[in-house]
Design brief:
The chain is mostly beta strands and about 725 residues long. It is built from 6 helices and 37 strands. The two termini are about 50 Å apart.
Amino acid sequence: MRHKNIFASFLCLLISISIFSQQEDNNTKIKEIQEVILKGQKPYIEQTANKISVNVSQSPTASTSNVYDILLQSPSVIELNGNLAFRSKSVSVLIDGKLTNLSGEDLKAMLSSMQGTTIDKIEILPNPSSKYDATGGSVINIKLLKNKKKGINGTLTTNTQIAQHLSHLPGATLNFKNKSLNIYSGYNYENSKQNYTSNSDQVLSPISQLFQNEYGTTFKNNHNYRLGADYDINKNNTIGFLFKGMNNRTTLSGSNDIELLNSSDLSLSRLKNNSKSKIFSPAANIYYKRVIDSLQRTMMVNLDYFEYGKNVDEDFVTQYFSNNISDVLLRDYASGTNKVYSAAVDFEYPSALGNFEFGLKTISTKSDNNILWENLSNGFWINDPSKSNQFIYNENIYAGYITYDKTLGDNWQVTLGLRGEQTYSRGNLIGGDQNDRNYFNLFPNVNIQYLKNLNNVFNINYRKSIQRFGFDVVNPFIRYQSEYAYFQGNPNIRPQINHSFDFSYTYRQRLTIGASETHSIDALGPLFTKNGETTVSTYTNFRSSDFFYIYASWNTTLFRIWTNNLVAGTGGYKFNTSTEDYISVNNNNSWAYLIQNNNSFKLKNNWAVQLDLTYQSALASGIFKQKGYFNSNVGVSKQLLDNKLSLKLAVSDIFNTMETRYSVDYNNILLNQTRKKETRFLTIGLTYKFGGGNSKSKESNDTFDDLEKRMKTEQ
C-alpha cells in the first residue's frame, strides 16, 4: 500500500507540472519538437494515431535489459497467462518484420535471451493492416540495429548484472558499407545465474489441503548471432540475406517441499529436480526487392526458414519423510524440433485510383516431439509407456491479401483490407489417434481516419484476427511437476477468433485517447482439472471473452530537458469460462486499470537519466484472478570521447515488487500461487563505438511524415 501511495503522489506531481507547462505557446512548442527531431535527438517514446515507437537505443535503462523485460516496460504492454497483450488484446511478435513463430514460454525464452543493446526500436501497431498475418489483435515489431554508416565500424558492449549472483552479458557488432553493399553482423553472449521461488496452497477436499514451497536456481549460457547483407544491383533492384540464431543451454536445480495435510495425517516429502535443456534456433531470410517504375511501384519477394530445436533431460527424486515410503526416482528425455518454411511476394501499387497493396504467402510447419519416461525399479531404469510418446504436428497455411488506401478530399483517409487464410493441419500421435483439420477464414480490416488538421486526428478501426495455439499446447505430452501436479497438452484445441473495434483521437502527436472492444470466440486459456489428489493443467477453449478498454497516452516535453510519457488505461474483463465438457455457473469478471509513466531527462555534459514506473491492478484472465503488481526502473548514462564511449548504470525493479500472484476458484479447484524470480539487478553497462563514416541519407521522422503525406495543406 505504501508503494501505491508513493506512486500516486508522484504521478499527481507529474500531471500538475505537465498541465502548467501546457500554457506555453502551442506553435512554439511544435517548432521546438521538430527542430529536436531534425537534429536526430529522438525521444524515447513516439506516438501517432496508428503506431507507437519505443526508441530503445535512446534509453539508459532499456538498453541494459533483455528484450522481454523491455516489452513489459513499453506503453500498455502487459503479460496475461504467460502471453503478451497490448491494451487487453493479444499480439503477434515480429523481429524485423518476420514472425517469431513462437508463443508462451518458448517466445519468452527467446526474447529473454536477446539483449537491449541489439535493438534499435520497438514498433507497436495497435490496428495492423491486412498485409500482416492475421495472427494476434495487434503487432509488435522488434527492429534490430542495422548499419547506417559508410566504411568499417562497429561496437563493443558489456553489461554486468549484480544481484544475488553475478551475470555477464558481452556483445559486439561489426559492419561494412559502401555505395552498393551493406554487410552487418552481431554477437551477444549471456552467462547468468538467477534464483526463483514458487509457493502455493490448494484445497483438495473438505478434509485435505496441499502446500508446496519450491525454490531453486537457473544457470544460462546463451549465444545470439546474426550476419546479413544488402546489395543494390542498381537503383531499382536490391537483394539481401540474413542469417541469425540462438544457442541456449540452461541448467535448473530446484527443490519442492510438499505438505499434504488431512484430518488424520500429515505427509511430508521433498521433490528434487535437476534438468538440462539445450535450444538450437537458426533462422534465415533471402529477399529480392524491385522498384518497377517511376511511380515507386514495388515488388518484394521473401524466402524464410526457421527452426526451433529443444532437448531436455530431467531427473526427479521424491524423498518421503513420513509413512515409511521409499524414495521415488523418475527421469525423462524429451526432444523436439519445429521447422517452418515460408515464401511471400508483396506488391505496392500506387495509382490514380488510390494505393493498393496485395500479396501471397505460404507457411509450412512441421513439429516433431518425442519423450521417453523411465522409472527406477530394483536398480534398473524401466520405460513408462503411460507417459512416453511421439507426436508429429503438421500445419500448412496459404494466405492472400489486398489492401486499398485512398485519400478523400483534404481530410479523409480510408483503408480497406481483406485477408484470406486456408489452414490444413494434422496431429499424429504415434501409435494413437490422428487429428486432421481443414478450415478457411476471411479477415476483413477497415480503418477510417479523419484529419481535421495536423494537430487533430480521429481514427476508427475494425479488425478480425485469429490467435493460434502454441505447438507445445497441442502436443499431448505429460510434463511432470510433482506427484500432485502435471501438465498435459490438448490435441483437440481450436484457434481463437477475435473481433476488435477501436476508436481514438490524437492531438498534436502528444495526446491519444480512445476506446476499444474485443470479442473473442473459443477463447484460449489454461485450465485445471482434478484426477484424484492430482491437479492436471492443460489448455482449452472457453466459450468466449470480452474486453472493453478505455485508454489515454500523453507525451510532453518539460523545461526542454524532461520528456514525460504517461499512459493510463481501464476496462472490463469478462470471461465465459464454460467449455464443451463443463458448464461454468459463475463467469470470471473484473474491472482493472493500468498506469505507466516513462521519464527521460537530457542533461548537460552528455548526461541522461530515465525513470520508468508501472502499476497494473488485479484483473481477470481465463479461470485466474491475477493480482496486481508494481514495477520501477531507473538508469543513468554518460557519453564520453566525442560520444564514442557510453557508460550506463541501471537498477531494475527498485523495490523488488515484481512477482506473479494468482488465485483459482473453478470446478472444485481452489488454488493460490505466488511465483517470484530475481528481477532486481544493478547493471553496469559499457559501449564503445569504433570506425567512422556517415550516412548521407537522413532518417525520416515517422511522427510527422505519415500525416504530412496525407495532408495537402496544413489547416
